[in-house]
Write a structure and sequence with these properties.
InterPro entries: Folylpolyglutamate_synth (IPR001645), Folylpolyglutamate_synth_CS (IPR018109), Mur-like_cat_sf (IPR036565), Mur_ligase_C_dom_sf (IPR036615)
Organism: Polychaeton citri CBS 116435
Strand order of the largest sheet: 4-3-2-5-1-6-7-8
Structural class: alpha/beta
Family: Belongs to the folylpolyglutamate synthase family.
Radius of gyration: 22 Å
Order of helices and strands: HEHEEEHHEEHHEHEHHEEHEHEHHEHEH
GO molecular function: ATP binding; metal ion binding; tetrahydrofolylpolyglutamate synthase activity
Catalytic activity: (6S)-5,6,7,8-tetrahydrofolyl-(gamma-L-Glu)(n) + L-glutamate + ATP = (6S)-5,6,7,8-tetrahydrofolyl-(gamma-L-Glu)(n+1) + ADP + phosphate + H(+)
Largest sheet: 8 strands, mixed
């Protein structure tokens, strides 16, 4: 990665000018970087700094340009094309015989865009792991944030949580302020070991007292922890520029900066609820066991058991699960959903629908939607969906189970269900792509 930046004309310390907040972890990265970006945007609107805020994330949902934001907007098609071909042409012109793979190529494109646009602060999400991730080219970020670490990407990172923590902690840099949340002991020890000789004190963030007075867009409990990590890492940028953001800020206007920033933060696809006719929808792209447990507990509490003022028939609604996960083992994920939901007064889903992420059959041919980690033939045969249906019915054979090819057909099926029931609660989860396809399906959701 350093060699590629060198061929682009950058020296190793150039990315440090971007005042980067580097975020790693397994569960909560997306929410954390969104909160950081939201507070920085509030600072920009209130005080004029940072003038330009970069955000580099992965993967994208609809367009590759979503990975590179400036001031909360994806860069334009014109800008993306310019910076993409700047990188392509310079690497080719400097003797690069084989281009970097997809994500490794997009990372220098993002850094080139941020430096060309003279970004004042940037939030950079690690792709996979940390130690060997292409984003780890940053030598001196403004701050490092490490959110919850769990088992994930075992093929690349290792089979136990300690090995995974070793990779995640690889973004810790000498003398750079580093923050994390409460971790299991094995993870915590691995993080501390990574700080050896680096002059780093890892600060463990607890729930910020201010959050009891803040209304976050998503009220799933884990979001408070993600927001609590966002506040101190932001202070490492704002302190340098005369703005101090304490975790226990008061009602003083300058201390209201985090409050307004956190409350303005939109979390698409995370704890998103909406109502259409007699159907209440909850959409969340959770795709890990731990995240699904929190989500389903929240779903049960909020939508199924939440309103004692409703008539009895409405407090026992039909419950529908719409699920897809194309790249992970589905057995443990579905078991987590079933077990957690059964703890909500013994509830079970009446219908479980397993579908692809595709809005319709034509999506597979659009370049931005090509997923090189998934075999197209497997998607077209619905292999993963049939496997999910089988895994679901082993412990719960009484559930009505449907395998459906597209989101368009899922919406049609939900419309039929809604005609025969008084009240229907629908949980959509397993994939941010699925959530986005349903949110984008016209007036359906």
């Amino acid at each position: 990665m350093r060699a590629w930046l060198d061929k682009l004309g950058y020296n190793p310390v150039d990315p440090d000018r971007l005042n980067i907040i580097h975020v790693a972890g397994t569960k909560g990265k997306g929410s954390t970087y969104n909160y950081v970006n939201g507070v920085l945007m509030q600072s920009r609107d209130t005080y004029g700094f940072p003038r330009k805020i970069g955000l580099y994330t992965s993967p994208h949902i609809r367009s590759v340009r979503e990975r590179i934001h400036i001031n909360s907007q994806p860069i334009s098609e014109t800008a993306f094309a310019k910076y993409f071909f700047d990188v392509w042409d310079r690497l080719q012109g400097n003797g690069e015989k084989e281009m970097p793979p997809y994500f490794r190529f997009l990372t220098p494109v993002a850094f080139h865009a941020f430096m060309s646009e003279q970004v004042d602060a940037a939030v950079v999400e690690v792709g996979v792991g940390g130690e060997f991730d292409p984003t780890n080219v940053i030598s001196t970020p403004a701050a490092v944030g490490i959110i919850n670490i769990h088992l994930d990407h075992q093929r690349q990172l290792g089979d136990d949580v300690g090995a995974i923590a070793w990779h995640k902690a690889g973004i810790i840099k000498p003398c750079v302020p580093t923050y994390t949340v409460q971790q299991v002991l094995q993870v915590h020890n691995e993080i501390l070991e990574h700080t050896g000789g680096k002059g780093v004190t890892v600060r463990v963030v607890t729930m910020a007292p201010c959050l009891s007075h803040i209304s976050l867009e998503s009220d799933i409990e884990c979001q408070k922890e993600n927001a609590s990590l966002a506040i101190p890492v932001i202070s490492e940028i704002t302190t340098e520029n005369g703005l101090f953001v304490p975790a226990n800020f008061s009602e003083d206007p300058i201390f209201n900066l985090p409050k307004k920033g956190l409350e303005r933060t939109k979390m698409p696809g995370r704890g998103h609820t909406m109502k259409r006719h007699n159907c209440s929808w909850c959409l969340d792209g959770a795709h890990m066991k731990e995240s699904l447990e929190l989500l389903v507990a929240w779903f049960g509490k909020k939508l199924v058991l939440g309103d004692e003022e409703l008539p009895e028939t409405y407090r026992n609604p039909t419950c529908v699960l719409i699920f897809n996960q194309q790249a992970r083992a589905v057995g443990p994920l579905l078991q987590a959903i079933q077990t957690t939901f059964s703890q909500c007064e013994g509830r079970r889903f009446d219908t479980a629908i397993f579908c692809t992420d595709l809005a319709d059959a034509n999506v597979l041919d659009k370049p931005d939607f090509v997923n090189h980690n998934v075999d197209r033939a497997v998607v077209e045969r619905l292999d993963q969906q049939h496997l999910s249906a089988m895994e679901w019915q082993r412990p719960e054979p009484e559930t009505e189970v449907k395998v459906i090819a597209s989101v368009e057909d899922v919406v049609d099926h939900i419309d039929k269900i809604s005609l025969r029931v008084q009240e229907c609660n629908i949980l959509v989860t397993g994939s941010f792509h699925l959530v986005d396809s349903l949110r984008g399906s016209g007036e359906a959701v």
